[in-house]
Amino acid sequence: LFSASDALFWFFPIILGYTAGKRFGGNPFTAMVIGGALVHPLILTAFENGQKADALGLDFLGIPVTLLNYSSSVIPIIFSAWLCSILERRLNAWLPSAIKNFFTPLLCLMVITPVTFLLVGPLSTWISELIAAGYLWLYQAVPAFAGAVMGGFWQIFVMFGLHWGLVPLCINNFTVLGYDTMIPLLMPAIMAQVGAALGVFLCERDAQKKVVAGSAAL
């Protein structure tokens, strides 16, 4: 049951790959494959191994690759689907009709997948580290305001995949101090969203909206 409930969020890049690809006018299945690459077991394993102190760096054609856990992320696959749709239109205009049905998706995957890992990864890492440093400074200066900022923006950080820059802070706090200051700031915001979804589920008369709200609350 947990696997069934967690599957939607874990494979979000694949599902969003289809919807974003369709929305941008590209081949949704090509975008789905790019989303699948983001959450491929080999990538997740490489990410976990990269957290070790003696880990070896990964590169693509000599260019260092910054690996992240893209499961449940939103923005990377949307950005990739947008780029893919642009490239796909160009290729369809350039390639002969006899070969474009095969070569257009192939070339899109060969170009956009590396670009996603090479550009989105480093950019997300840089922004995550910036947010982490900002939180530490803000919590030491004005703890109450830090709580308001983190509680208000946490779900946005999760959507962008930027929360991974803050997770090591929580782990380090538990290891060194035995407690963490961030999680108590986040839980009220998360539970408030659960309460809002549950309220819609209980009060909404539209059956379709009740289903969506009930699933969101769970």
TrEMBL record:
The chain crosses the membrane at residues 29-47, 67-87, 99-120, 126-149, 185-203. It is a multi-pass membrane protein. One of its GO terms (molecular function) is protein-N(PI)-phosphohistidine-sugar phosphotransferase activity. GO terms for biological process: phosphoenolpyruvate-dependent sugar phosphotransferase system; trehalose transport. GO terms for cellular component: plasma membrane. The keyword Membrane applies. It is found in: Cell membrane. Keywords: Cell membrane, Membrane, Phosphotransferase system, Sugar transport, Transmembrane, Transmembrane helix, Transport. Residues 1-218 form the PTS EIIC type-1 domain. PANTHER family: PHOSPHOTRANSFERASE SYSTEM TRANSPORT PROTEIN, PTS SYSTEM ARBUTIN-, CELLOBIOSE-, AND SALICIN-SPECIFIC EIIBC COMPONENT-RELATED. This is PTS beta-glucoside transporter subunit IIABC.
